[in-house]
Amino acid sequence: MKKAFITGITGQDGSYLAEFLLDKGYKVYGLTRRTSTQNFARIQHLIHHPHLTLVSGDLVDQHSLTNPIKEIQPDEVYNLAAQSFVQASWSQPVLTGDFTAIGVTRVLEAIRLACPTTKFYQASSSEMFGKVRETPQNENTPFYPRSPYGVAKVYGHWITVNYRESYEMFAVSGILFNHESPRRGLEFVTRKIANGVARVKLGKQKYVELGNLESERDWGYAKDYVEAMWLMLQQDKPEDFVIGTGEAHSVREFLQLSCKVAGIDNWETAYKHNPDFDRPAEVDRLIADPKKAREKLGWKPSVSFEELVILMVKAELERESKTSK
Ligand code: NDP
Ligand code: GDR
User: Is the pTM of this model over 0.90?
Assistant: First the structure.
């Protein structure tokens, strides 16, 4: 039985990846942080799975990474843990650097010392392209990050490349564009809109407060993207890949279509601008060139932009109609 170790298993991607690997017959170990109240909502349905084991640890604590990796001897390690919210990286830049950048080195060091044959996946991000140098963005596009988060991810990307080249480790960096789902954190714009619009429709709130409606993102469905992570580790050679749909849409379009799906006639009545959600430095437009992934991994997205909006808004209408508040 193959063994996988996932950091960030309680997050959106970690929960989908755990499901995916358990379905493939893996034994899955997930790193979780100690918190005063448990936040296992996304993996609650998996908790009693006979092949899932949770391990307590933190990206800032080297021993809590090295010890389990030494004991488990995993075939694959997926480093998905991070402070992943771009906006929060301006108010907590040092913490973001510690988790999202140096945390990657800690995981790589744990592997190097305790299980050097492990295959390693690093969750890199299209935010590294930031103020883009070319359009669309591929594996060779230079980086120009626009937030402390983006800067930290650039470090994580290059330290992964460096360990591959220095120690001949099977270490890859997946440069993933935005991917969403009903399990997305409520603070991210797609889930915030889907949830807000559902609440407006049900009369629970008057409008959704948002920042910049003009920025454009290449949005896909998270379930498709965890398969790409796995595919990268099944290759003969460790290589980096860009993963995205190749289509960009604005926040405004996401909002307009969400209102339509929820049955709100005039989207402008469901929205209010709040400058608190504007960013000190914005990433205006990201769009992937996923040609390499299509050709080498045989990967392509299965859910279109329209389908994604429909599935997210429907999930929120269902969720919100079950409670009165
Ligand atoms: P989430 O924010 O949903 O999940 C982040 C996970 O990291 C949570 O399980 C969280 O645990 C864990 N975590 C945070 N800090 C620490 C720490 N110090 N030690 C251990 N665990 C920690 O992110 P996503 O699932 O959306 O993203 C997964 C990864 O992919 C992240 O690295 C993100 O930056 C990256 N990424 C995401 C994209 C996207 O569109 N979703 C696109 C490109 C990259 P807890 O539940 O305890 O908070
Ligand atoms: P992003 O996602 O920053 O691309 O990072 P987010 O959904 O936070 O923002 C997307 C765009 O929407 C604009 N926006 C708002 N964003 C939020 N969160 N809240 C608002 O009210 C709002 N109004 C407008 C933003 O300005 C931005 O332009 C995500 C994360 O998952 C990262 O971890 C990941 O690396 C990248 O995607 C790829």
Answer: yes
